[in-house]
């Protein structure tokens, strides 16, 4: 089936809604989840990157709105990463890589997402440290480039880094990651378009689904919500996608 026909799958739409809900609940846009689903449903790689970026922009904006409203956002924690991530995300968006290499990089990032979902790292520390500016600038550049290259926002990497380094708590890292994802996704998308890339018109029908999931996830996540079971289910889906990407 072509991408337009695949989009009509009720099962895919349901999974997209769940992914948007879960990711928005922790301040993420969900690109790694959308890419995993598109890989499982055998979408063309040319369709995956721009579609994931568009959906990421929508959901991360919604998630940020709810976390900002709860006064969880910290500008001083946000801007050092973004200074370098935006130009490097644009650079990554310009670059088109061979399909096999794209799948390997994506699968590796999805493993990172699985680890984040099941809590293998990124636990909140009791004491917080002042941010190290040079290190934050470097981390922002690396995450930004990777984000633009494969079509993610980078929050799935940034939020556990913030927790591991003791620079933020869970709620604050979610708020910072949400806006970080938004600006990186926009920059990566501009980079993609600047090289002649086009947005698949058929992907527009997916936006309504992720908007619903994003609103619900952002609202409940910015409050207090336990989604451990659903997160473990999503982690299993991502692992299946990783296996598929590594073996095809």
How many helices in DSSP terms? 11
Number of domains: 1
Q: Approximately how much beta-strand content do the residues carry?
A: under 5%
Bulk shape: globular
Poorly predicted spans = none
- Determine Rg (CA atoms, Å): 16 Å
Q: Report the order of strands and helices.
A: HHHHHHHHHHH
**Mean pLDDT across residues:** 83
Query: Major sheet, described briefly?
Result: none
Oligomer: single chain
Number of strands: 0
Distance between the termini: 18 Å
Helical proportion, percent range = over 70%
The helix/strand class is mainly alpha
Main location: membrane
Protein name: Probable membrane transporter protein
Organism: Flavobacterium paronense
Subcellular location: Cell membrane; Membrane
Structural description of this entry:
This protein is an all-alpha fold. The protein has one domain (3-247). It has 11 helices and no strands. The mean pLDDT is 83. It is found in: Cell membrane; Membrane. This is Probable membrane transporter protein. It holds the Pfam family TauE. The chain crosses the membrane at residues 51-68, 77-95, 101-122, 134-167, 173-192, 204-222, 228-246. Belongs to the 4-toluene sulfonate uptake permease (TSUP) (TC 2.A.102) family.
What would you say about this model in short?
75% of the residues lie in helices and 0% in strands. The chain is an all-alpha fold and 248 residues long. The model has no long low-confidence stretch (mean pLDDT 83).
């Amino acid at each position: 089936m072509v991408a337009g026909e695949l989009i009509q799958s009720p099962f895919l739409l349901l999974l997209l809604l769940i992914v948007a809900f879960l990711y928005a609940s922790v301040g993420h846009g969900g690109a790694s989840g959308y890419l995993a689903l598109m890989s499982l449903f055998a979408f063309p790689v040319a369709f995956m990157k721009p579609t994931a970026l568009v959906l990421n922009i929508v959901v991360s904006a919604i998630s940020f709105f709810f976390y900002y409203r709860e006064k969880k956002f910290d500008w001083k924690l946000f801007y050092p990463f973004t200074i370098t991530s935006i130009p490097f995300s644009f650079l990554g968006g310009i670059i088109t890589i061979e399909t096999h290499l794209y799948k390997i990089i994506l699968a590796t990032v999805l493993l990172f997402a699985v680890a984040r979902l099941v809590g293998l790292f990124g636990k909140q520390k009791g004491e917080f440290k002042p941010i190290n500016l040079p290190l934050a600038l470097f981390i922002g550049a690396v995450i930004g480039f990777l984000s633009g290259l494969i079509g993610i926002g980078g929050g799935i990497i940034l939020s556990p880094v913030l927790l591991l380094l003791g620079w933020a708590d869970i709620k604050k890292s979610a708020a910072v990651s949400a806006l970080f994802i938004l600006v990186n996704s926009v920059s990566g998308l501009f980079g993609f378009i600047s090289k002649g890339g086009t947005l698949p018109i058929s992907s527009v029908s997916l936006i309504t689904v992720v908007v619903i999931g994003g609103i619900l996830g952002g609202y409940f996540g910015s409050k207090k919500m336990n989604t451990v079971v659903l997160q473990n289910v999503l982690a299993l889906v991502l692992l299946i996608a990783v296996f598929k990407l590594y073996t095809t």
